[in-house]
Amino acid sequence: VQLQASGGGLLQAGGSLRLACAASGHAFRSYTAGWFRQAPGKEREFVASIRWGGGDTYYGDSVKGRFTASRDNAKKMMYLQMNNLKPEDTAVYYCAAQLIGTDYKNPGAYTYWGQGTLVTVSS
């Protein structure tokens, strides 16, 4: 599976942005998809995960209620809708995928990674 993230940009606090991640390769629908972010000087942080069927989603505490993960297996796409953005959301955002689907908060559990897209939120 190859992943390519897009949709990052510069915006003001309170704004919204939707990130997209395109997957190539077979059996994408079988993978658990995840979103992570990494701010300068910080460790990679879990943002969201969505199981293969799209019914089970999980979020990091800092984004609960503001971010929504979704996926379209037919199109081999995954999305991260981000609302009410804050300056502390500024980071490079990565999409990722793993086949097993356990330990979804751990970046080490993910096998495939996109290249990252930068989101900058100004105050």
Break the fold down into its secondary structure elements and pairings.
Layout: E1 2-6, E2 9-12, E3 17-24, E4 32-38, E5 45-50, E6 57-59, E7 67-72, E8 77-82, E9 91-98, E10 112-113, E11 117-122
Parallel strand pairs: 2-11
Antiparallel strand pairs: 1-3, 3-8, 4-5, 4-9, 5-6, 7-8, 9-10, 9-11
Please characterize this protein's 3D structure.
This protein has strands at residues 2-6, 9-12, 17-24, 32-38, 45-50, 57-59, 67-72, 77-82, 91-98, 112-113, 117-122. It has 123 residues and is mainly β. The strands form two sheets. Strands 2, 4, 5, 6, 9, 10 and 11 form a seven-stranded mixed β-sheet that branches. It has a four-stranded antiparallel β-sheet with strand order 1-3-8-7, with no helix packed on it. Strand 7 (67-72) and strand 8 (77-82) form a beta hairpin. It is globular and about 40 Å long. The N and C termini lie far apart (37 Å). 33% of the residues are buried. The model has no long low-confidence stretch (mean pLDDT 93).
